[in-house]
């Protein structure tokens, strides 16, 4: 059941990040990958900023994954423009 929760968090976070970064999303697979990788990036960022803080629940996980996905989109657009940012 945990893998289904991760997929849902990844999809929601990827879609939210695409909307926040003024995009139209990256397709269902792109959003999923972006959200899942964003969860790792967001978890790492939150661990660096505040080692004792941990997101709790589904909503906390979505927020952390979305922040990580936004950071990924931002870095991808810096490195390669719009073409590279399309996953």
Overall description:
This protein has a domain at 27-47 and 55-87. Helices cover 82% and strands 0% of the residues. The protein is built from three helices and no strands. The termini are far apart. The model has no long low-confidence stretch (mean pLDDT 78).
Principal-axes geometry comes out as: globular
| Average pLDDT, all residues | 78
How much helical structure, as a percent, in the residues?
A: over 70%
Structural class: mainly alpha
Strand content: under 5%
Q: What's the assembly state of these chains?
A: single chain
Over all CA atoms, what is the radius of gyration?
12 Å
SSE order and pairing:
Layout lengths: L1 H19 L6 H23 L7 H29 L2
Helix pairs in contact: 1-2, 1-3, 2-3
